[in-house]
Design brief:
The complex is a heterotetramer.
Chain A: E1 8-15, E2 25-32, E3 37-41, H1 48-55, E4 63-68, E5 71-72, H2 78-83, E6 85-89, H3 100-104, H4 106-110, H5 115-128, H6 145-157, E7 163-167, H7 175-192, E8 195-200, H8 203-209, E9 212-217, E10 221-226, H9 228-233, H10 238-244, H11 248-253, E11 274-276, H12 281-291, E12 296-299, E13 305-309, H13 311-315
Parallel strand pairs in A: 3-8, 3-9, 6-7, 7-8, 11-12
Antiparallel strand pairs in A: 1-2, 1-4, 4-5, 9-10, 12-13
Chain C: H1 20-23, H2 30-72, H3 74-89, H4 92-103, H5 107-131, H6 135-143, H7 148-178, H8 191-199, H9 204-232
Helix pairs in contact in C: 2-3, 2-5, 2-7, 2-9, 3-5, 4-5, 5-7, 6-7, 7-9, 8-9
Chain D: H1 12-22, H2 24-59, H3 63-75, H4 78-89, H5 93-117, H6 121-129, H7 134-167, H8 176-180, H9 183-223
The chains are: A alpha/beta, B alpha/beta, C mainly alpha, D mainly alpha.
Chain lengths: ~325, ~300, ~240, ~220
């Protein structure tokens, strides 16, 4: 699958509703580099979803500009613009009267793709999102919530768009399935390298999913736009600090794995617990504290010891 | 597009040739009465069995002699049929002479004989661009019909005897309520002021008599039920029901266009319509459930008119 | 004076006597059914189907236009829906008579009245069907770049179709039933044999046969439309 | 056959209103007869269909019956019912009332069934959990919640019954139908006048029940 991604730029983008005193989005400026996931996060009323819908012009800009690969969205035909952007929403919005295949084929069909092309593409996409290709002939009513969300993602990817907009895609799904879908999405992204604008109200999801996080405060103003690490460790102001939570240092631990820190050279001691190098620091700390041991052996995928780690090493 | 043009052109050509042919036909035929096209007869009827049969008798006889006949179907009461013929929606319908004289013309003094009734009806119709052909031998008057058991119980023989019945109720067609040959006659001429009237739009009066829902009903003398012995028709000593022979009403325009030929075809049918014939045909439809079409066809065939 | 019609008396042929069942007004005279299927019942049935088919087709067309208008412009919905409701409320026999001054005792009168009755159910169901399309599907359609027309034909219309077809079923069954009253105005349809049966001292066989045909026709139409609805909306079974 | 079209002038409806004025007592008594027949039938239909529909809905049983009855109710032509009634019950008030009751039952029964059957299951479960008896669940929770739909059913039934009551005139049912089928006596103006009166009765009844419907809808929405 040919991968392509576009750079997304918000340039003083503003949305002001005539009947409200405060703007919904206030002079938002940020750049999402091609192939990265930018998560918009913030309290309700922060204008996250509004900002997302400005991009595909479901909500028209009041002032400022939004550019995709340097081209203003207002210079493009609105239907063309929308067809070129993948769109995933919380309620999924599958068409109940169409089979999974017909749902996925909606935009390709508008582009005049053949049935054969759509059938093959559907099979390919279903596999990509972790569904058996036999689901192609089912109706949405015959799918579980998680399956529907997967089909929704496949549908958004159908025309291979360079930019994806995802509006709280996993909010309505139970935590276990949500974690699995997040993992799958990240795996997919490693392969596809799309530019993704992702809206969530869940800071943990933002930290897990985002390459960059934009925190919006009430009134649609950008509070901070940075990598998850910097957001957690160097919050720009009191609002951000409060929003990411008092446990932000702990959350920051989840950003790195044991393999990414320097370990003590392995003095081999029998009876010490073993832990995978791919475990993130937060989980490793929990493992050590819960195990009652002050040291563990870090092993790689093949079980070879790499060194040992103590709680002090992790929080340093 | 091309096809459409050709078809339209063909149609136009056809219309022109038809027009020319008609013109030639008219010029050629102007001196020859025999070649004159026979007029179209639009037959209407009132809304009960005997009228359906009469409509079929006249219509089929005319069609057999080469007239174009259109059936306008059942129109309703005499009043509606009258509206239909005066407005030109139909040009032929069988009517009862007494109804014409008393209910349509609304003559104050009822004619005293069948021929006087016919004459009065014809005179009236001719003032309105209509006319009558010859009347039938049979007559079919309304009768005040009661169950035989009722007649025996109260000793009823004539309409006047009804005063002996404590609460007299009477069923009939809705228009009976405002007709001199019906309810108004009972009230005004016989003095049966307390009569309770039950209008029936579609249900037979005999049904109500059978069910004991009314004391009397507006029957017809040619109804097959009258011969069953189950009912008694009370004598109309004051002649409120008049003389009800049938005569075909037609427009003067149709009468002139059809000339003596049309009149002779219609009169030939009328002459055969005796009381016995009409009762037999009514029975065939009402009791033996034959269709009016079939009964009329059989009768015309048997009499060499079909 | 009355013209004298001379000549011999009439020959009164045998018209064939009815069966004893017919003569005694039986409940179910098979002889009558056999004899009069061709000349009475079958033509009445065909006429009845014609009356209903025309009314439903016209009603469906008019209701579609009104429903699309009422759906797009909500301001129209109240007056249009109210008017359809108003038409539905007028008793059929009254509506027939109220139309007579304009259209006479014609099939047109009957069709206008029957069509008016279908509007209420069809219009309401169409609008409800269109309004009932899930918001998320519409949002997804817009977000995916479907134009308004595409959204209407590919998403709204198919999703409204179960409600529309349900309305069509109700309207068809009711119209088959109401059309029997049409015989008050024109001697057509299955109402006509019923009226004739009433006139012939309640000939039960004819009334039951024609009435039964009307009921069977209504139920058959209902089943056929239900089957059709199932066939064209496979997703609603999922 | 457009017999009557020619009689039409712009004055026909004016004449009809004049007819009502000139024959006020006649119109009043005929309208009264129609109302008597229709409302008696409606009352009986209500008394029969409402409890049955509520009970079936409460038990969530008889879906097939509820659907079947509503389709059959629509499919039954009134003139067939009246004609059939004539042969069994004879001519008169009771034949017509029985026919109208049969016609009036389906919308009430079906709507009552679906109103109760579809009442918010959470609310019903909460009520059971709070210890309400089945009877109390039905009368205090399901009935009020389903009231708008029930009233809508009564409204459909009422319109249907009034319309059909007019047709009862063919079988000596009296009322405004007598005038409507008797153009010979009352003239076109009378026929139109009768039709206007029937329509007015139907519309007023529909309007009144429509207002009740709105009132109960508002109260249940406010409660929820």
């Amino acid at each position: 699958m040919a991968t392509q991604a576009a750079e997304l730029v918000f340039d003083e983008a503003t949305k002001q509703y005539p009947d409200r005193p405060e703007p919904a989005v206030d002079r938002l400026s940020l750049t999402v580099p091609a192939g990265e996931i930018c998560v918009l996060v913030g309290p309700s009323g922060g204008g996250k979803t509004t900002a997302l819908k400005l991009v595909n012009r479901l909500i028209p800009l009041t002032s400022g500009d939004i550019r995709i690969d340097g081209r203003s969205i207002n210079d493009q035909d609105v239907t063309e613009l929308r067809r070129s952007i993948g769109y995933v929403i919380q309620q999924v919005g599958l068409f109940p009267h169409m089979t999974v295949e017909a749902n996925i084929g909606t935009v390709p069909r508008l582009y005049g793709r053949s049935r054969q092309w759509i059938r093959e593409r559907t099979a390919e996409l279903l596999e990509l999102v972790g569904l058996d290709p036999s689901y192609a002939k089912r109706y949405p009513a015959q799918l579980s919530g998680g399956q529907r969300q997967r089909v929704g993602l496949a549908r958004a990817l159908a025309a291979n768009p360079p930019l994806m907009l995802m509006d709280e895609p996993y909010s309505a799904i139970d935590p276990i399935v949500r974690a699995r879908l997040q993992d799958e999405f990240l795996r997919l992204q490693r392969e596809l390298r799309k530019t993704v604008l992702f809206v969530t109200h869940d800071i943990d999801e933002a930290i897990k999913v985002g390459d960059r996080i934009a925190i919006l405060r009430e009134g649609g103003r950008l509070a901070q736009y940075d990598t998850p690490e910097n957001i957690l460790l160097k919050p720009a102001d009191e609002f951000v600090a409060q929003f990411v939570g008092a446990d932000r240092a702990l959350k920051a631990l989840s950003l790195r794995t044991l393999g990414q820190i320097s370990l003590r050279p392995g003095t081999w001691l029998d009876g010490l617990p073993q832990i995978d190098a791919s475990t993130n620091l937060r989980d490793a700390l929990g493992f050590l504290l819960a195990g009652g041991s002050d040291r563990a052996i870090v092993v790689d995928d093949d079980g070879n010891p790499l060194g040992t780690v103590t709680p002090e090493d992790i929080v340093r | 597009m091309f096809r459409k043009h050709t078809r339209r052109a063909a149609k136009a050509a056809f219309a022109i040739s038809l027009g020319v042919a008609l013109l030639i036909g008219l010029t050629a035929g102007s001196g020859l009465a025999a070649a004159k096209a026979k007029p179209t007869v639009v037959v209407g009827t009132k809304n009960f069995t005997e009228e359906y049969i009469l409509g079929q008798l006249y219509g089929q006889a005319l069609a057999a002699k080469g007239y174009t006949v259109k059936y306008a179907g059942s129109i309703g009461s005499s009043e509606l049929a009258d509206t239909a013929i005066t407005s030109g929606k139909i040009n032929f319908y069988p009517e009862y002479t007494g109804v014409l004289a008393l209910d349509i013309a609304k003559l104050k003094n009822a004619p005293k004989s069948a021929s006087a009734t016919y004459a009065a009806a014809k005179t009236f119709e001719e003032t309105r661009k209509l006319t009558l052909l010859a009347a039938t031998p049979f007559y079919d008057t309304d009768t005040v019909t009661v169950l035989k058991t009722t007649a025996d119980k109260y000793g009823l023989k004539a309409i006047g005897d009804l005063k002996k019945v404590p609460s007299f109720s009477y069923a009939g067609f809705p228009e009976c309520a405002t007709r001199a040959t019906c309810l108004l006659g009972l009230k005004n001429t016989y003095g049966l002021k307390q009569t309770k009237f039950v209008p029936l739009a579609s249900v037979s009066v005999y049904t109500l008599l059978d069910q004991g829902k009314v004391t009397g009903g507006d029957g017809f003398s040619t109804d097959p039920e009258q011969a069953s012995g189950k009912y008694v028709a009370l004598a109309d000593t004051k002649h409120i029901f008049g003389f009800q022979n049938v005569a075909p009403v037609l427009t003067q325009e149709l009468a002139q266009a059809g000339g003596s030929d049309l009149a002779s075809v219609v009169n030939a049918v009328s002459s055969k319509l005796t009381l016995a014939a009409m009762q037999a045909m009514n029975k065939a439809v009402a009791v033996d459930k034959k269709t009016p079409q079939a009964v009329a066809a059989a009768f015309l065939k048997a009499n060499g008119l079909g | 004076m009355i013209p004298v019609l001379g000549g011999s008396g009439p020959v009164i042929p045998s018209f064939g006597s009815g069966s004893s069942c017919e003569q005694n007004n039986g409940w179910w005279c098979t002889d009558w059914l056999r004899e009069h299927w061709g000349d009475t019942l079958q033509p009445a049935l065909v006429q009845h189907i014609e009356l209903v088919a025309i009314a439903i087709a016209a009603g469906f067309l008019i209701a579609s236009v009104l429903a699309i208008a009422g759906f797009r412009y909500r301001l129209l919905d109240v007056p249009v829906g109210g008017f359809a409701d108003f038409l539905y409320t007028i008793p059929s026999i009254a509506l027939f008579q109220l139309l007579v001054p304009f259209t006479g005792l014609t099939v047109l009168t009957v069709e206008i009245a029957l069509t008016s009755y279908t509007l209420f159910v069809l219009y309401r169901n169409m609008v409800a069907g269109l309004r009932g399309v899930p918001e998320d599907a519409l949002e997804a359609a817009r977000g995916m770049g479907l134009t308004r027309v595409q959204t209407f034909f590919r998403v709204e219309l198919p999703l409204a179709s179960p409600a529309v077809l349900a309305g069509l079923r109700i309207a068809t069954v009711s119209t088959v039933s109401i059309a029997t009253v049409a015989a008050f105005v024109v001697p057509k349809g299955l109402g006509e044999p019923i009226f004739i049966g009433l006139d012939q001292n309640l000939f039960k066989t004819e009334i039951l046969a024609a009435g039964g045909l009307a009921i069977l026709l209504a139920l058959a139409a209902d089943v056929a439309l239900a089957w059709f609805a199932r066939a064209v909306t496979p997703w609603s079974r999922a | 056959m457009s017999v009557l079209a020619d009689q039409f002038t712009a004055h026909t409806f004016v004449d009809a209103f004049r007819f009502i004025g000139d024959n006020a007592s006649l119109m009043l008594s005929k309208t009264g007869q129609t109302c008597e027949l229709a409302f008696a039938a409606l009352g009986i239909a209500l008394a029969l269909a409402l409890p049955l529909g509520l009970w079936l809905g409460h038990r969530h049983r008889g879906l097939f019956l509820a659907l079947g009855v509503s389709t059959l109710g629509r499919a039954l032509p009134i003139i067939v019912l009246i004609a059939f009634g004539l042969t069994v019950l004879g001519v008169g008030f009771w034949n017509n009332t029985a026919a109208l009751v049969v016609l009036g039952i389906p919308p009430i029964l079906t709507n009552a069934y679906f109103a109760v059957d579809g009442a918010d299951r959470d609310a019903v479960e909460a009520a059971r959990g709070m210890g309400l008896t089945e009877r109390q669940v039905l009368l205090r929770i399901e009935l009020p919640l389903g009231l708008p739909l029930i009233v809508a059913g009564v409204r459909i039934s009422a319109v249907f019954v009034i319309a059909s009551a007019t047709i009862a005139a063919i079988a000596g049912g009296g009322g405004l139908g007598d005038i409507i089928v008797n153009q010979a006596s009352y003239g076109l103006a009378g026929v139109i006048a009768g039709s206007l009166c029937v329509s007015a009765v139907a519309l007023l009844t529909a309007l009144a029940l429509g207002l009740v419907h709105r009132a109960v809808s508002r109260s249940t929405t406010a409660r929820a």
